[in-house]
Amino acid sequence: ENVYRLTNQNAYELYIELEDWTGVVKYARYATFSVGSSSTYFRLSVSGYSGTAGDGFFLSHGSSYGNYLNGHGFSARNADHDSSSTQCLCLGGYTGAWWYNYCAGSSLNGPYLRPSDRTSHSGNGVYWGPFGGSQSNYLKTSKMMVRPVDFQP
Q1: For the segment 37-88, what is each residue's pLDDT rounded down to a tens digit?
Q2: What region, left, alpha or beta, does residue 133 occupy, with left being phi > 0 and alpha being psi -120 to 50 degrees?
Q3: What is the pTM of this model?
């Protein structure tokens, strides 16, 4: 609800910083970002990707692509708002609340797992598929930062 209230006040951009367990740091920047109200299940609205981490919301793939997340509601264990007939959080290997379509190619709210922590029951950790490399399912850190589009330092 707080992210909705914040992003409903002004036009915001989103900057995501990601680091893997080998120290590689990459970023994804979205020129516009907002979250809808609870009545829309906190629907994601994002556009204008640039960066080095890859587009984890899969905007360039179009809305028919299963990992395309723009326009989808936020799902949690007790609130299944994805488009899949099965719950992504339980059956898809995803363990954190996130915007899911037919599951996802990213999920930044998973547990912080090293690749060596993975078990058949742990699911994915902090995940950003386009990050690349053998550790894209197990990122060490993630930061999501928003600021007004017209911000001047």
Answers
A1: 999 989 899 999 999 999 998 887 765 555 767 888 887 767 766 666 665 5
A2: left
A3: 0.85
User: Residues 44, 70: contact at Cβ < 8 Å?
Assistant: yes
Compute CA distances 8 → 1, 11, 34, 153, whole Å. Answer: 11, 8, 7, 22
CA 90, distance to chain mean position in Å, is 17
DSSP per residue, 33-98: EEE--GGGTS-EEEEEEEESS--TT-GGG-TTSTT--TTPPEEBTTB--SSSSS-HHHHSS--S-E
* Measured distance CA(82)–CA(105) in Å, rounded: 13
